Amino acid sequence: MPPKQQVMSRTLFDEIILPVYAPAQFIPVKGEGSRVWDQQGKEYIDFAGGIAVNALGHCHPKLVAALQAQSTQLWHTSNGFTNEPALSLASRLVNNTFAERVFFANSGAEANEAAFKLARHYAVKTFSPYKTKIIAFYQGFHGRTLFTVSVGGQAKYSDGFGPKPADIVHVPFNDLNAVKAVIDDHTCAVVLEPIQGEGGLTAATKPFLSGLRQLCDQCNALLIFDEVQCGMGRTGSLFSYMDYNVTPDILTSAKALGGGFPISAMLTTHKIAKVMSAGCHGTTYGGNPLACAVANAAFDIINTPEVLSGVADRSTRFLQQLEKINQQYGVFTTYRGKGLLLGAELAPAYQGQAADFVQLAAEFGVLILNAGHNVLRFAPSLIIGENEIEQGMLRLMQAVSHFVKR
After folding, report:
1. Count of alpha carbons within 13 Å of 312, Cβ hemisphere only?
2. Cα angle 226, 367, 301; round to 5
3. pTM score
4. Is residue 165 part of a domain?
5. CATH code where residue 342 lies
6. Total tally of structural domains belonging to the chain
7. Is 41 a known ligand-binding residue?
8. To the nearest 10°, the Cα dihedral for 391, 228, 337, 380?
9. What positions are modified (N6-(pyridoxal phosphate)lysine) (predicted)?
10. Is 14 a catalytic residue?
11. Which one of 252, 281, 302 terminates a domain?
12. Does the annotation list 152 as a binding residue?
């Protein structure tokens, strides 16, 4: 007799997947644009964007075509060879940013791991074996490897895994005096997200970033921008450092870079990159032809005046609709973030219940995120339609109404 077919249910997840996630009770099976459907055929408006990954929505035709075309040519070669899609994507990144060198990996954590290793290696090779201090910020998030989670400023993600990498100092975000108190000649890098993603959508101020640039220059330390979540058009510029007119020494990108296909990149200059040599860092899958082909297509769409300028208009529509909900129900106190990486902080009566809001919103057919316990997060497609915004916000209003009443 043939084996019994396994039912792909949410219950099966609890039985066979490592219990490090708590996914929704429904299972999405199809996505198109800014809409998603589950196994039962229920439709959802997507304001979550796969945590800012699906910058062009689900199954964008040009991304699908790029993947299909590349899938018939070359899938994987390893780092023993280069390939044309990788060279093409690297050229796009170099030609449109401060960068002169690119390293490809597969996730934001890997790109940040490479950035932190590069910063220390550069300092050790160029200045002193004792120049290893990394200054980072409370509520920051840089990935889940032991190094990146230790640099991240949220102990809940790093505690319980044994000794952490040493010489990492955390200070309050947007507090230049706190940085001044700890930066010295032993500092190799200052690391931050220009807009803290998981930490509550707090945006850096311009004086803060300008001050960090000056401090790093004075101490021969590198300034690293983690733009995994806030980059690739999310703020209305290709990368958010362009909004601040402050240029980092190293920048990391992932999430929207592949429009849904796993890929990441670390960007830097010739001066810094030259300390690296063959074999001192690497990755088997980094620069994969499939990933780079999709990322090339995503880049060509995102890096256009039409898409980038449209972010501001969509952001305004989101904020207007959120305020409309707030005027009726009084659930928010402030709005955070920039562009289409937005946060709505819950009023005191609803503090600690952001995850409950997320779950209830899904029941009413709209997908949103939380950023901590007190902030609702919105990271929709950069090209989401006006109709989807209005429909999604109507569903969110219904969810809020239900939540307040209960």
Report:
1. 8
2. 55
3. 0.95
4. yes
5. 3.90.1150.10
6. 2
7. no
8. 0
9. 255
10. no
11. 302
12. no
The verdict on residue 69 lying in a domain is: no
Those residues with Cβ within 8 angstroms of residue 149's Cβ, 6 or more apart along the chain or in another chain? 142, 143, 157, 158, 161
Q: What is the pLDDT of residue 65?
A: 98
Q: Are residues 50 and 111 in the same domain?
A: no
Residues 260 and 162 in one domain: yes
- Do residues 223 and 235 share a domain? yes
Tell me the average confidence (pLDDT) per consecutive run of 10 residues in the chain, 406 residues long: 71 89 93 97 97 97 98 92 96 98 97 98 97 97 92 87 91 98 98 93 96 98 98 97 97 97 98 92 93 98 98 97 96 96 96 95 97 95 97 97 90
Final residue in a domain of this structure, among 302, 320, 338: 302
SS3 content of the chain, % helix, strand, coil (to 5): 40, 20, 40
**Residue 213 and residue 168 share a domain:** yes
Question: Contact 187/131 with Cβ under 8 angstroms?
Answer: yes
- The β-bridge relationship of strands 35-38 and 341-346 is unpaired
Residues 182, 217: Cα–Cα separation, whole Å: 15
| Gyration radius from the chain CA atoms | 21
Catalytic residue among 255, 318, 357, 378: 255
Residue-level length of the chain: 406
CATH number at residue 263: 3.40.640.10
In the block, residue with structure tokens 């975000």: 173
Count of H helices and E strands in the chain?
Answer: 15, 15
Q: Mark whether 159 is an active-site residue.
A: no
Does residue 385 sit in helix, strand or coil?
coil
pLDDT attached to residue 198? 86
Domain hosting 137: range is: 74-302
Q: Which amino acid is at 9?
A: S
User: Are residues 212 and 156 part of one domain?
Assistant: yes
Catalytic residue, chosen from 131, 208, 226, 249, is 226
